[in-house]
Amino acid sequence: MARWIKALGPVARCSRCAQIDEDELALRPNLGWLADTHALGNELSEGLQWIHANRKPGAQFYVALTPGIGNPIFKHERSYKGIQLPDSGYQLLALYRFWNIVEYWYPDRNLIGEDWDKVLAAFIPRLTQAKNRAAYQLQLMALVASIHDTHANLWRSLSIRPPVGSCELPVTLRFVGDQAVVTPYMPGMPAGGAQLEIGDVITAIDGSAVSSLVEEWTPFYADSNQAARLRDMAKYLTRGPCGDAVVAVRRGERHIRLRVKRVPIMGEDPALAFHDLPDPAFRLLSPKVAYLKLSAVKANKAADYVDRASGTKGLIIDARNYPSDFMVFALGSLLVDQPAPFARFTVGDLSNPGAFHWTPPLLLRPKKPHYAGKVVILVDAVTQSQAEYTAMALRAAPGAIVVGGTTAGADGNVSRIPLPGGLSTMISGIGVFYPDKRPTQRIGIVPDITVEPTIAAIRAGRDPVLEEALRLILGAKTSASEIEHLYRRRHREPPAIDTRGR
After folding, report:
1. What is the C-alpha to C-alpha distance for residues 278 and 281, in angstroms, rounded to an integer?
2. Is residue 487 scored above 70 in pLDDT?
3. Distance between CA atoms of 470 and 449, rounded to whole angstroms?
4. Alpha helices for 106-189 (secondary structure H)
5. What is the per-residue pLDDT across 432-467, written as a single tens digit (0 to 9) for each?
6. pTM of this structure
7. Of 105, 122, 428, 439, which has the fewest Cβ atoms less than 10 A away?
8. Contacts of 279 (CB under 8 A, 6+ apart)
9. CA 427 from chain center: how many Å?
10. Given this model, what pLDDT does residue 2 score?
11. b/e map of 485-501 (b: 16 or more CB within 10 Å)?
């Protein structure tokens, strides 16, 4: 290695050398290994230290930072689409590339929770010994999952992630705690071969306990926290070969076994996984309560939403979805009455790979029309990335309350990483923190009041998170039936699930 580096040509002494700015330094590069002569030998160690000491400040060839944002762009990494796999050299390159990008360009590397050096050692044999393309992809998937970032995945290779199959049961599931519960039926899904009911708990599929499947598949699910992981597993849990599956179900106090037909997988519609109310972006649930869901908003209508909510006691902003438009400043500025800091970032340093610096706090500045009522923000595991960032900003409103469950814990603009074999993954490219430097990565937006769905509520078609928001606005003495009536009166009850063959 020392001879190879020397063959690349001499590195001249720098006249203007790169230095680390100690001001607002959030992460320092780990470069102690450069002086480890026991591992490197004297010649290689001295050569590497010389190169580092004489590095030039400013632009790089392989990495740039997105203008105005700061997340890294890996603009000259080749994806080697045409290689024939298996190829242990290219497979090793994939490991080294991803490992080094995380080591030097991942703003949340200190939040991974893994010993990153040990991850490298563990995956050298796993990746080099992968015997075919599918095995290579699966090991890459496990490597990417080890950074625990919901933005990271082999997004075009999910068909090889367990469970594998071209069919699925014709139901939707949602984890309540560690229990996989059947939820209201997906419109347009084809029928199966048995009857399942809303509120059924699926305990086993084809003889394998759901708890065992979750444990077995966890290493391949790239999620920041368990809430996001179970959210994703719920979408894939019933996949497998086409034909009948034997499903063990707990229905109330009864335990039953059903034979249910798997049907061809339908195209995914992300909106079907949202937990907000159907139909319009804005509505009045009563003369006292306004409701706005981020999945259908338009930034140029923010003032109109606030005008229509004028005079209400409270505004419920539902972030249990993904925003249809960027609302942070368009809406947030109408909810504050004075400049309010809501977030700050960490960004990388082109002159010092591995160093990350704090940016100044971002502010919401008040604009008219101002909404003066109570603001309640709804979140859960569906709330991810821009939805989390929006919830952070809206939380800056005076007296705002966040209600719901743990969010996905993956915020910040994403950076794409090409990998050998024509594959790619992504990472959260900037660190997103509260103004006091508390992290959001892996933690998510922690609710002020935690409310989780229950099996009984799912069976009854109720929304406990929205009910708590209504109670906070209308008062604790408001009856449960009155609260339920406010949000259920404007749309029909969900249809019963009938998966019997037609």
Report:
1. 9
2. yes
3. 13
4. 116-128, 133-145
5. 999 999 999 999 999 999 999 999 999 999 999 999
6. 0.92
7. 122
8. 490, 491
9. 10
10. 94
11. ebbeeeeeeeeebebee
